[in-house]
Amino acid sequence: MLADAINDDIKTLLQSRFAAAVILTDSDALEFGFASFDPNELIDTGDDNLGSDSAIENRNNKSTYILPYGFDFGAHNQHSINSKLFYINSKNDVSLVDAFDDSQQLTEHSYGGAVGYSYQIPLSEHWTLYPSFNTYLTYYKNSYSTDVPEAQEIEDALNGRIINTSAWALLFEPGFTLDYRLPTSWGRWHASSKWNYFNGIAWGDANDGDIGQPDGWYITNRVTGYYDLLSQKHTVFLGAKRVDLSAILQSELGAQHYYGASIGWLYNNPTHWDAIKNIGLGLNLNYGSALKGGSIVFHFNKF
């Protein structure tokens, strides 16, 4: 019974790593940015859900790099192909032996790519439905290091199963986005509700190949106001969102749901290339998750 319980825990942990790669590389749901900070150090709100030293350390120990590419086609650009390459790196102190936390470190790497298709279905003047389907291929590996002799016996038992090991996953993600856009005299409102479900297969050396099928879901609801300046050459924006998570994602983000807020500036059509619609800088706040806190974000083709 104990062996079965340990096996189930190992499978759940491995599956959560592949699930995390989906949401951590979805800029609609989560944006890391750079120069992370604790808002409570600027204005002490007394609200730990806004930021903490441990959350900032968690953000700083996790790096996400994404290279996106997409294009539209069709008579009215109603078809879209989107792709991305990504790399996620994290370094965390672990506790195989509780008395020596600082001397035990787990380094994790996730490499992957995704390609997806979406179709634009106009419902009315302001409402549009976007069904979509994405496919993710992710390679995960980790390494555990320690100079604690007391941890050696535990390391030997877990070596190759959950530490110092690797695995692959192929995930399929159907979803849809309900989009609302309202032009105004000063700019526009944009609201959306995005629903994603993913499921797939995993294999590799980890846990002797017994990894199971990663699956989960998340829902992103958001609203943003855009204010155009200088003949629409510049745009400032203010937005808010809520993201709800399935159980497998809660283990990564430490919450059933979290909130986000953003403010920023965009420079529209900075080049003669149609593929570059806008670039800019913004300030993001994450409230209520394990990655709570603030960061500065570089924006590329935000809308």
Features:
single chain, 303 residues, alpha+beta, Lipocalin, 13-stranded antiparallel sheet, 16% helix, 53% strand
What does the model show?
Helix content is 16%, strand content 53%. It has 5 helices and 13 strands. The longest helix has 23 residues. Strands 1, 2, 3, 4, 5, 6, 7, 8, 9, 10, 11, 12 and 13 form a 13-stranded antiparallel β-sheet that branches. The chain starts with a helix and ends with a strand. It has one domain: Lipocalin (Beta Barrel), CATH 2.40.128. The chain is of the alpha+beta class and 303 residues long.
Order of helices and strands: HEHHEEEEEHEEEEHEEE
Q: How many separate helices?
A: 5
Tally of strands: 13
Q: How far apart, in Å, are the first and last alpha carbons?
A: 52 Å
Oligomer: single chain
Helix content: 10-25%
**CATH hierarchy, class:** Mainly Beta
What is the fold-level CATH name, i.e. the topology? Lipocalin
Indicate the CATH architecture: Beta Barrel
Outline: globular
The total domain count is 1
In terms of DSSP E residues, the strand content is over 45%
Structural class: alpha+beta
Radius of gyration: 21 Å
The main pleated sheet reads as:
13 strands, antiparallel
Overall residue-averaged pLDDT value: 90
Low-confidence stretches: none
